[in-house]
Amino acid sequence: MAATSEKKTVFGACPHDCPDTCAMLYEVENNRLVNVRGNPDHPLTRGGLCTKLKDFHDHHYNPERVLYPLRRVGPKGSRRFERISWDEALDEIKTRWTAIIDEYGAEAILPYNYLGNQGTLQGLTVGDAFFNKLGASVLEKTFCASGSSTAWLLTVGPTGGVDPESFAQSKYIIIWACNSVSTNLHHWHIVHEAQKNGAKVVVIDAYKSRTAKQADWHLAPKPGTDGALAMAMIHQIIAEDLLDRDYVAQYTVGFEELKERAARYTPEYAAEITGIPADDIRKLSREYATTQPAAIRIGVALERHHGGGQTIRAVCCLPALTGAWRHVGGGLLQMPVWEFPIHWDRVCRPEWIKPGTRVINILKLGDALTGRMPLAPPVKSLMVYNANPVSQAPETNRIVEGLKREDLFTVVSEHFITDTAAYADIVLPAAMAGEMDDIMWSWGHLYLTLNQKAVPASGEAVPNTELFRRLAKVMGFDDEQFTRSDREMIEHYVDWNAPQLRDIDLAYLERRGYAHIRGGKPETSAPHAEGNFPTPSGKCEFKASGAAQGNFVGAVFRQMYESGQGAEPIDDLPDYVPCRERPESDPERAKRFPLNILSPKSHGFLNSCYANEEHKIRTQGEQFVLINPADAEPRGIREGDNVKVFNDRGEFEADARVTEDTPPGVVVATLGYWRSRNRSDGSVNVISSAAYCNFGHAPTFSDNLVEVRRVDVRLE
Fold first, then answer.
1. Strand 294-298 and strand 172-176: pairing?
2. What angle do CA 414, 418, 421 make, to 5 degrees?
3. CA distances from 137 to 238, 467, 577 (A)
4. Which residues contact 58 (CB under 8 A, 6 or more apart)?
5. Which residues are within 8 A (CB) of 93 and not within 5 positions of it... i.e. 6 or more apart?
6. Is residue 58 exposed (0-12), middle (13-18) or buried (19+ Cβ within 10 Å)?
């Protein structure tokens, strides 16, 4: 008699560091994931997934997955490991950590993680409570949006801004430094529908991205000069009296000071800085101010240069000047994460952090591991999870140098032997999304989304929550924090009594899979039509009262640790702050490295995820660099040539794509490729500086100068 096939469908949520946070459906047959598709009922996902996720079920069964704990048996970086048991792995971790704590203190242990998983349970903060209890160094996690978050909070407060779905009502849409087609696809569908209904779509980006090619108008400022453009728009709107004077009077503070600051930013002055013609700046300002509702979507790239925080402060002023906030589909979208009702203090347990515990920023890993950062005690152990710094962090050659230290005990929890895991002493097998429970917030929309465990984990892989339960047990921590089940965590961490979740509970999510967290409907949502900004003044603060406290990083990015902030002095008014690495700013450096490089996210990868899978590489293409013909010709570079991209921090090889999509003086190489799969053992972040943006200790991935040379082909 034939066995009966057991089939079921359960709710899923994309775990990736992406604003779309797609609602998914897991299809299971005989305890095996056989298909993953977008939930057709979800208002943004609409049944579709991006190219990265289209075979997510097969990804779970990739034959290269790490399925069991491993111990290194060869030199660091050799990728030679032997299988061991979980008991052996945990015993070795306990033994090594206990010895380090006894000799150096717990601060000699450094956790390193980011958004390799975006879940409330399994993501950014999953290990914070454990490491806070342990007494380890605090990690300041500022890869993305920390600079824009500081600027946003100073100007409009912790609001979600305009509902992404409300862009359907917009008549004028600016997509600013965001390649939505590749990195925010489901919001792009809404923008495109508005465009078909008559809205004008303007893309402001330093090169012609996939999104820019679909815009009605593309403006390409020189890299890092967007702040001058925003200040010129402020100037022009004021000069031509295109203001909503009533809105400015009732719902803003600091207008006169802003007016004085913007006075010198005439279109002609800004044109010299940005390369955008003065008439285009005037046209943009007039159209934006007079076509309502007008909405702006800002991307992460807008912060990624020295003056990025001030750039975003300037952009944040625009919708209040014009009264765009009055309208449904008017205002500004950064990331709506601020409105999700999560008890982050319950997740992270910041009260366990000992006063005076040191903070190490995620961008400074190379300095921390190599002694260039004076640390007492030195970092003697590193635990990496939800992250792949050898691909994603700046100055990766320095990180590799540190990871090679024989006296550094490194533990990595991973799906694959990544470029980082290759240097681990112990590798632990991590479960994938279909093998765990979670509840997802989003940084791109206002839906809370449930992810249900669909299948047993492959091999001996475990979710991050179970990993830290096991680590807590072996280290002797018996707090209730470390004994809750995943379902109990969901119940405990979400603020189910918050007004955003009226009539919504876990049972509701188990029936529907998702829930909108803001009252009302997107087609009627205008959250700041009458001000009500969650700032100290209750108004949009052109002059930021919070600037007096100095520079800061949002607490959720630093284990909810409020102490030890940088507190560097910051301006209370927006302004244009030039890049560090530009021909105008550093002419001597530009003589050696004359080209600005941009490193946007790839279309086919999600950060470094999938960059080890051949079919994904075929979709994305091998590592390439876009270069303008005016820069290629004098260097003897032709289409398809193997070229070396380099500066004094490192080098990588790539295929040249000679194109007008990038302007003269600018080259583009997308992010995510594994250096171990590059012919020169490098990827774009070998050339990236670890210097901070001026707000929020954000990275400056778009503030780097390089040179490009053709690599001679030698015939055997």
1. parallel
2. 65
3. 48, 19, 32
4. none
5. 411, 426, 471, 474
6. middle
pLDDT (0 to 100) of residue 8: 96
Sequence-distant (6+) residues with CB within 8 A of 624 are: 654, 655, 656, 657, 669, 670
Low-confidence ranges of the chain (pLDDT < 50): 1-2, 714-716
Residue 287 carries which side chain, given as an amino acid letter?
E
- The token pair at 510 is 């188990």
pLDDT at residue 519, as a whole number: 75
Give SS3 for 203.
Answer: strand
Q: Give the 3-state secondary structure of 492-539.
A: HHECCCCHHHCCCCHHHHHHHCEEECCCCCHHHCCCCCCCCCCCCCCC
Residue 399 host element (H or E): helix 396-403
List the structure tokens of 713: 């082909």
What long-range pairs does 486-491 form, CB within 8 A, spacing at least 24?
A: 486/121, 486/436, 486/437, 486/438, 487/437, 489/121, 489/465, 490/120, 490/121, 490/437, 490/438, 490/439
Token pair, residue 308, equals 């990025």
Q: Which amino acid is at 322?
A: T
- Residue 219: exposure state from Cβ atoms within 10 A (0-12, 13-18, ≥19): buried
**Interatomic CA distance for residues 304 and 302, integer angstroms:** 6
pLDDT tens per residue across span 467-481:
999 999 999 999 999
Task: Give me the pLDDT at residue 520, please.
Answer: 74
Where does residue 585 rank: exposed (0-12), middle (13-18), buried (19+ CB within 10 A)? middle
